[in-house]
Structures are given as C-alpha cells and as structure tokens.
Amino acid sequence: MTTAAFGVHSEVGxxxxxxxxxxxxxxxxxxxxxxxxxxxDDILWVEHAQKEHDRFVTLMRERGVEVFYHxxxxxxxxxxxPHAKRNAVEQAVTHLTVGPALVDAVREELSTxxxxxxxxxxxxGLTKEEFDVRGFDTRSLVAASADPQQFVLPPLPNSxxxxxxxxxxxxxxxxxxxxxxxxxxxxxNQSTIYHNHPMFTGEDxxxxxxxxxxxxxxxxEDFGKAALEGGDMMPIGNGTVVIGISERSTPQxxxxxxxxxxxxxxxxxxIAVNVxxxxxxxxxxxxxxxxxxxxxxxxLPFLETAVTHSLRPGDRDRTLDVRPERxxxxxxxxALAISRLDIIPTGGDDSQQAREQWDSGNNFFxxxxxxxxxxHKNQFTNRKLRQHGxxxxxxxxxxxxxxxxxxxxxxxxxxxxxx
Length: 419
Ligand SMILES: NC(=O)NCCC[C@H](N)C(=O)O
Known about the structure:
Elements: E1 7-8, E2 15-20, H1 25-28, H2 46-62, E3 66-69, H3 70-80, H4 82-92, H5 103-110, H6 115-124, E4 126-127, H7 141-145, E5 151-153, E6 166-169, E7 172-175, H8 184-196, E8 206-209, H9 220-223, E9 233-237, E10 240-245, H10 251-263, E11 269-274, E12 288-292, E13 295-298, H11 300-304, E14 308-313, E15 320-324, H12 328-336, E16 342-345, H13 350-358, E17 365-368, E18 371-375, H14 379-387, E19 391-395, E20 412-416
Parallel strand pairs: 1-20, 2-3, 7-8, 10-11, 13-16, 18-19
Antiparallel strand pairs: 2-20, 4-5, 6-7, 9-10, 11-14, 12-13, 14-15, 17-18
Helix pairs in contact: 3-4, 3-6, 3-8, 4-8
The structure holds citrulline (CIR).
C-alpha cells in the first residue's frame, strides 16, 4: 500500500485518486468550422456529454475512487496565491495570443476576476464579446478586426482528455509539451494547478519535465519543438515505463523522461515503441491499454509494425543504453517478469476491428486488476474481453468519443497502487 499522497505505480493496480474534466463551455465553442482545428471530429451535444461523463464519475466514486475535477482544481489554485493568478494570466495572455496592443489591458482586467471565473475562461476561452474590447478598437488591430464571437483567448476543448497534458510516472509528474497548437495552453493550466494548489504544494513528488519543474521554464516558443503526450506514457510497473513514439511524442522527449526517471531511481527501463503517425492512432493508448496484470487490449495492425527499443541507464552519468527488442510484447513480458501477456485483439472482422479501434475500442481504463471501464458501443471487443475474464463496465460514449478519446484518455490518475 502506497503511503505517499501521489504516485502512479502501475496501469492496473487499485486506483485511488484521479483527475477528470467535466464537459463544459469549451465544448460549446466547437462549431462545424473550427472543430477540425480544435482536434474534434464532430460537434457535441454538450448536455448529453455531461450525463455520460457524470455516469463515469459516479461509478468510480461508488468504488471508492477519489475523483477531482480539473476546473475546480484550477479555480482553487488560482485563488491560492496572488502569484498563481498573475502567472496564469501572464502565460495565457501574451503578445502572441492577444497582440502587443491589448496585452496589458487584458492582463489587468483578468487579474481582477475570481479564480472561478478565470478558470472557466482559461479552459472555455474568451470571446471579444465577453471581454468587452470595444474601447480598444482604435488602439488594437486584434480588437478592431475581430467579430464579436472571435476568441481573445482560445477555448481548450481537449481538456476533456486529462491524460495528455500532465502524466504521472511513479513518484513524479511530467508537464507535457503538447504537439498540436490547439493543446499547448492546457499544460499551462496543469502547471498552475501543480505549482499552486494546496493539495500539491508541500507534497513530495518529482517533476520529470520540464527538468527543473520550474514554472518559469515554460516557454510557449520552445513548446513548438518538443512533443510528448500522456496518452503515450505508461508506468506499467516493475520499474518500467512504456512510451509510444507517435504523432505526438518524439524520441528526444522520451530520452528526457528516461534520463530524469533513471537519475531519480524511479525507473530502470523505458520501452519505446513505434506507433504509426496517423490520426486514428494518435497515441499508444488508442491501440494498446492494459486490462489486468497479464492482459492487454491491442489493435493487431499496430503490433505488426511495433518496432521496439529498450532504454536503460548507460555506464556513465546521464547516458543511456539503447537496445533493439525482438518485439513489443516480448519486451513487456520480460519487464513484468510474466510468462505470457494475454493480448486480446479488437473484436469483429477486419472492418469491425477498424471501426471499434476508431471508436476507442482499445482504450480501456482500469479501476483495479481485471476491472475496466470502456464505451458501450464497442460490443465486439467488450464481449471478447469478457470471454477472457475481464470485467468490463460500460459507459455511453456517443458524445464523449467525438474528439477521439476513451476512458483512458479522459483520466489522469494521480494515485494508483502497484501490481
Ligand atoms: N490519450 C488520448 O488518446 N487522448 C485523446 C486525445 C483526443 C484529442 N482530440 C486530440 O486529438 O488530442
């Protein structure tokens, strides 16, 4: 039993604490013209998405999991210190986001807002109409040229997928540099929470990225060059981390994580596996998730091309020993010291498998070994899992899945036991 307040020691051990984001204003901002840019494949019926999400939260709470809402944590963190609010406003409102002519005025105004209102708009975006910039039309081209619905601050609808911008590996968290522009500011909100919320300040945990864990290390221009997202990062247990080299996560960043976790003694092996760079595969957890200590769901076409390397500490300080593996599953079996990882493929014929993979049919979230939550619509896959002895709890995901994410994507575990 873990005694620390935070730490994620496996993918399937008993889940104690998790952060999620209830669908909100940011999803109401999606329109048929902006949904692609905001990485959603459709617009959502938000009230229904909320019901689906509430059911997910209720079933976790019924099982004793402590569930925290991202927006509430952000609101509380913003109120925790004057620095928190000032820093969050300065990071979100810059010469690049609102233009140099408006930056001081917007910062000044937002600094007077309550943590609750500010959190709502840091996630939900802020339109020109909501932030009355009319007085600035003669001073700011951004103000003068924007129509009332245009965003002064962008909405962050992918906050729904809490897995990606901050990810725990054993006793530390990585505040991730996101690949797509539409998600960059999500990490700023995570940083505000971890550095200022009383639940986290004073607790003993590491920052795997940025290396110093320092808030000042966030530079939105650097973020365009590095990329790492939590959907690719899995602390599978036994001192091993699995990370996908995907559309969203680069080998350079995987080296950073390996060096940081090795130096702290938190991990001794990183298994890096290639994930084809395409929308439907975007992270490792869209094609592979753990279900039990020795069971995993996988989309077989991914496994066929899964070039794999293991990274271990090198013979000198801050060096790595990188070796090719025979196969991804072999490497995981070896790392977990199990004779066989039961791979349960996506259900149905080839086209049904492709359809269910697209609908998050390989994206399960474990509450304890062998008990997972997934979308109801993936009937062929869910049936198969049950045949292999996995308890699949279903939630509706018609609306929640429209951004291409399932239960694993929507959750950021912050305390989970080992296996
Ligand atoms: N871990 C995940 O696979 N997260 C899903 C992220 C979906 C989001 N619309 C995105 O494209 O980033």
